Amino acid sequence: RDDPYLALKRLLKGAGLRLEEPAASAKPALKLDNLPPGGTVLLSDRRHLLMTPKRVQILVAWVEAGGHLIVEAEYPGRPDPLLAALGLARRDLVYSKPVAVTSPQTSEEGGEGETHANHDKAEKAMPPPKSRRGAMRRSTDFTEVSLPDGGSALKVEFAAYQNLEIRQGQYLQASDKLGLRFATGARGAGRVSALSNFDFLIYRGVGQAKKAEFQGTHIGRHDHAEFMLRLVRLHPTHASAPMRLVWSRDDVSLWSWLMEYALLAMVSAAVLLLIWLWRVIPRF
Q1: Strands 243-246 vs 40-43: parallel, antiparallel or unpaired
Q2: Between 66 and which of 17, 38, 102, 108 could a Cys-Cys bridge form, CB atoms 3.0 to 4.6 Å apart?
Q3: Average pLDDT value over all residues in the chain
Q4: How far apart are CA 170 and CA 184, in angstroms?
Q5: For the range 268-272, what are the long-range contacts, defined as Cβ-Cβ under 8 Å and sequence gap of 24 or more?
Q6: CA 284 → CA 176, 274, 279, 280, distances in Å?
Q7: Sheet strand arrangement including 40-43
């Protein structure tokens, strides 16, 4: 009820993988420092507060040294310097323009057949959503994903609210009718696998959609479970090196953020305050 990724973790453990899972509220150093050499890291979105330039460099260097990074594109509206460093980016969905629907003609020149044809075209064309939230709730058809392991293509249903874009590097791609959903490719001695979202990995009836009928995609549909196992097994050391699950969150406390990124400024402000008090107090 509380952990939307519980089924995923049990699936991975059942496959013999050794999992490391720092708490979502853990300090960034515990999550992203001392990454397992040659291991696998599953990194979720809502991480923009943690992606300092130094940490991005460390992650990229870890991949190039032999790690496998399975990363979810950052939540819409937030910067994603990690994807940019890997030669990837995000794009809005591509929707076809709706066809104008003409009013029924009563004259002999314009028959109703033409009007119904235009109406059918308008129904087939998908207008842009009125809001980002509306786009997130819209599900898409499944995506045919072929992995470089030589196995058969898999059916994966990604929630449709943003696309991936490849700007640099060689990536094996998988797209559906709305755009690019998945990309994987070698980088140095390691591998990068980027996904537009992790929504298909949660269990049925948990997460934002508390009722199963309102949840468009989940790990029990199509080939989602097999896709995840085959994706992890692309890495040659998946059975010997641990796999770390890094779940991020937006609600980082102000005190934690200041201690992580502004400790020197806080110490300097405290010293200046003490000097000011030392000068002012004798006057009274």
Answers
A1: parallel
A2: 38
A3: 79
A4: 8
A5: none
A6: 75, 16, 10, 8
A7: 19-20, 243-246, 40-43, 68-72, 190-195, 179-187, 172-176
Cβ-based neighbours of 283, under 8 Å, separated by 6 or more = none
pLDDT in tens, 146-173: 899 888 899 888 887 888 889 988 999 8
Query: Tokens standing for 26?
Result: 């853990």
Q: List the beta strands (DSSP E) in the chain.
A: 19-20, 40-43, 68-72, 88-91, 143-145, 154-156, 163-166, 172-176, 179-187, 190-195, 243-246
Q: Output the pLDDT for position 115.
A: 40
pLDDT in tens, 44-79: 888 888 888 999 999 999 999 999 999 999 988 888
- The first and second tokens of residue 33, run together, are 């420092």
Reading the block at residue 151, the tokens are 């196995």
**Would you state the torsion angle of the CA atoms of residues 129, 130, 135, 136, taken in this order, to the nearest 10 degrees?**
-170
Question: Which amino acid, 144?
Answer: E
Contact 74, 83 (CB under 8 A): yes
The reported pTM is: 0.72
